[in-house]
Amino acid sequence: MKRIRSYELLEPLGPQGKYCRTYLARNHDLPSVPYCVVKQLHQPPFPKIQELFAREAKVLDRLGQHSHIPRLIASFSEGNSDGDYFYLVQEYIEGQDLSIEISPGQTLRDSQVRDLLRQVLTILSFVHNHKVIHRDISPKNLIRRTENREIYLIDFGSVKELSTSTRTRFGQIRTPTLVGTPGYMAPEQQRGKPCFASDLYSLGMVAVAALTRVAPHTLPTDPRTGNLIWTDRLLRRPDDPALIQFIDRLVAHHAANRPTSAAMALEEFEQALGAGRSAAFARPLDIATPDDPVPTGVAKIRPPDDCAPTDVVAPRNPNRVTTVEQEVLPWDSIFKYSIRGSAVLIALATVWGLGGMAKTRLDWWWYARQRPPEIQTRYLEADERYLDCLFDWDNCQVRLHTQAFQPYWEMTTAAQAEGVFFWCESGFQSIEQQKRNLDQGSEAASIRALNASDYHTGFAVVLSPQSPEDRRPTSRHEFENSTVFRWLQDNAANYGFALSYPEGDPNYEPWRWRYIGPGSIFNP
User: Fold this and answer.
1) Rounded to whole angstroms, what are the CA distances from 159 to 52, 102, 164, 188?
2) What burial class does residue 205 get, using C-beta atoms within 10 Å of its C-beta: 0-12 exposed, 13-18 middle, 19+ buried?
């Protein structure tokens, strides 16, 4: 086997990426030759990556002081003609990850889930106190050690961010903010804005998967609030309703409705469940945050039932109050003016309604004349309330329908695991946006161009290889010969995506793909 300094690489651990590889190794520096984990990061030689590597090594060194986080043994770099290789050597935790215990078809008891939450929250409190967000709390990153049957936390997102860093054509370093496991990522983390509460959401999803025997990405959400609908999937009646309420608080859609840190969540957990006590957690309010695209209802705050109204009684005033009579309009005048005002309002509403109906029918007739018959039945312009933001670079949002949001990230994650990287360059564009961008010379030609596009449905995207700065190839032939297109041809259908235009269409562009899976308007 290959040997790096005093570390003998034995076998790969887990999926291997193009730039990051993980090995089980032995440390020949010590007499017992113990096992260890070696992470090898391969990057082209530019200074910024070395700076990031040194910073992340320091973070892992601090976190390794916790007894349930693998200790950092060494960090070093070696260079050759291929570029720089960076190495992180960590303690090896012998055991199995929780994906063996938490998988579709298997459930844990309430007592096991409580123990899981307590252990992980204790570890996360230490992590959050060091101003670090893990960003990938999932069963595969929670290991139950064989020796003591306790849970250990591994694989921090900071290292993943480093391993997937890229350099743009302008020499800038781009480190992706999206690090995590699809199905376990919090909504704000999917938009590239993780916080401490994002780790709590992921932990809550681990607990949900442990109790429901259902894969997290298949669970539905409330279209009005975005909150997860999962309690109806419980296979048995919970021993303690407070446990369900606590988990429901962790997986609240809005970060503002979750505890702000693991320490706060642990305190709430101990108060409610730590000593067998049962406390009622408030259901998450539908509070909209400025950067949250999911629609919410109006938060109705009602005082608790034990708060009865208070009657305030003023002392008797010894001074006599003189009543002043005011002149009022006679009833016949009030009735007359009310009838006249109502008549005017009804007339205005009738004119407005008839005009709107006429315009709608006229627009539909015009579009129907220009659109092929098979498209008429599926014509739809996506309601922006049901769109999620994939990226937001320099206020240029790329949005996709919520039904296609999760399958898109599952597809990109699978591609990255095989060393294929692509980005969503463009997504939803309304009819009005497309009209402003079109310059076809005639209204009829513009309408035909809009009908050929399916961006207005919210399900279509433009995919671009590598980083967004590179943009897509300028010709159909160039894109069809790319690694990205070949990977999409072989795998995109597994995630519900297909070419936007079929072969033979004169407008066919191979970088345009659309979601045709469950929930899509294109799903027959």
Assistant:
1) 9, 25, 9, 20
2) buried
Average pLDDT over all residues of the chain? 75
Give the Cα separation of 498 and 477 in Å (integer).
18
Looking at residue 178, what DSSP letter applies? -
- Cite the active site residues: 136
Residue of 492 and 359 predicted with greater confidence: 492
CA 5 – CA 17 distance, rounded (Å): 23
> Using CA atoms in the order 406, 410, 415, 417, what is the torsion angle rounded to 10 degrees?
140
First-residue to last-residue Cα distance in the chain: 53
From the list 519, 476, 472, 471, the residue with the least C-alpha distance to 495 is 519
Do 284 and 246 meet the contact criterion of CB atoms below 8 Å apart?
Answer: no
Residues 6+ apart with CB under 8 A from 31: none
The pLDDT tens digits of the residues spanning 393-451 come to 555 578 888 888 888 888 888 887 788 888 788 888 887 777 777 665 566 666 666 66
> Is the Cβ–Cβ distance between 34 and 27 less than 8 Å?
yes
Q: Which residues of 428-450 are buried (b: 16+ CB within 10 A; e: fewer)?
A: bbeeeeeeeeeeeeeeeebbebb
Q: Per-residue pLDDT tens for 77-89?
A: 887 766 678 888 9
The C-alpha atoms of residue 471 and residue 474 are separated, in whole angstroms, by: 9
